[in-house]
Amino acid sequence: MTNFLHDGDLPSDVSFGASVAVDSEAMGLRIGRDPLCVVQLSAGDGHAHVVQLRRPDYDAPNLKRLLTDPAVLKIFHFGRFDIAMFQHYLGITTTPVYCTKIASKLARTYTDRHGLKDVTRELLGIDISKAQQSSDWGQAKLSTEQQAYAASDVLNLHALKAKLDAMLVREGRAQLAQACFDFLPTRAKLDIAGWEDVDIFAHT
User: Fold this and answer.
1) CA torsion through residues 132, 86, 45, 115, sign
2) Are the C-beta atoms of 203 and 43 separated by less than 8 Å?
3) Nearest to 98 by CA among 23, 46, 171, 17
4) What pTM does this model have?
5) 39, 89 in Cβ contact below 8 A?
6) Domains of the chain as residue ranges with CATH
7) Which range, of 13-22, 56-65, 114-123, 130-139, averages the lowest pLDDT?
8) For residue range 149-180, what is the model confidence (pLDDT) as tens digits?
């Protein structure tokens, strides 16, 4: 079930427990140019909340409180982008975090296919549609198809995390993965500051 919230914030009584799957939609992929439009969340229980943000003020205190709650793990797929968008537009640092894309790259070294669609199909046997990925997320009313797409991006992240965690432990890379997750908010700050295309660890 998808709960579409067009008033810009989560209700104060919504609880996600110890972890929440998170994703976002924007008008494009350039931080600072392309506005953040939607944040979707799921407790991994088959339900999703799709929050259409208020622009340009981004007044969403309940959402911000959840994203910065140290007791709630935020699960992303390619969290680097979402965390940077939240830093830039919501003015928050999202922690603690987990990224299924990073986990996939560390655990599934037998493939170079680490997109959400590919990982979900292989590990969970579920096909998700990406048809609405490049659509107008800034319009006043999201279509039913957009809402369903947004929900699909978070509904399976808890299950993916469980599968990937087992693989990371098996391959002896769980601690390395955790170190990468811990660095993500800093990586997002580098992206915002202009180092998005620069490997600062490279020799040249």
Assistant:
1) positive
2) no
3) 23
4) 0.95
5) no
6) 2-195 (3.30.420.10)
7) 130-139
8) 999 999 999 999 999 999 999 999 999 999 99
